[in-house]
Structure formats: C-alpha cells, structure tokens
Amino acid sequence: xxxFSAGRNVLLTLQRWAALLSGxxxxxxxxxxxxxxxxxxxGVEKRISHPLGKIPTRFLITYADGTDQIIRGQETQANEDFxxxxxxxxxxxxxxxxxxxx
Length: 102
What we know:
Elements: H1 8-24, H2 27-30, E1 33-40, E2 45-49, E3 58-66, E4 70-72, E5 82-87, E6 94-101
Antiparallel strand pairs: 1-6, 2-5, 3-6, 4-5
C-alpha cells in the first residue's frame, strides 16, 4: 500500500477544520441575519425593518403559532432597511419568529 505524505500546511488545515466541526462553527459565523418576532394578520403584507444594511435574500420561519403560510412580499420593495413578507392564510394570524438572511 502506498503511503500518502501530507505537507505541514495540509495537516494544519485539517486540524482547523476538525476543530470547527467539533463545536467551533456557529450559524452566526456563516450568515448575516436578523430575527424578527411578532404577528401578521391574515391576508396582510408586513414591512419588517432590519439592521442588515443590504437587501435580504431569503427568510426562515423559526417559530410559528397559528399559521405558517408566509411568503416573500413584493420583491421590488425590499431594500437595505426593510423586508416584506405576506401571510397568505385567509383566516389565521401568524404569530412567531422569522429569521431574515442577507
């Protein structure tokens, strides 16, 4: 069987990756995000202010009570200060948390 000889840089890189994967890597280290919590009435589009300083690219619902039928709002209105989401449920209010990602 042939031996593989890794250089010192390769070994250091692998050690760093192993350290990150064993608990040193966090969500906040990899994504710019803002978590909003509140309510959105049935059929309403909500303007959410955020401190990200850039146009958000997506969102995740991290907690929902009532309905989880939330879609991205009017994309042309999203900007560095505001993000729009809409509750498309016709009867139930969304109450929960939304993680906005840039």
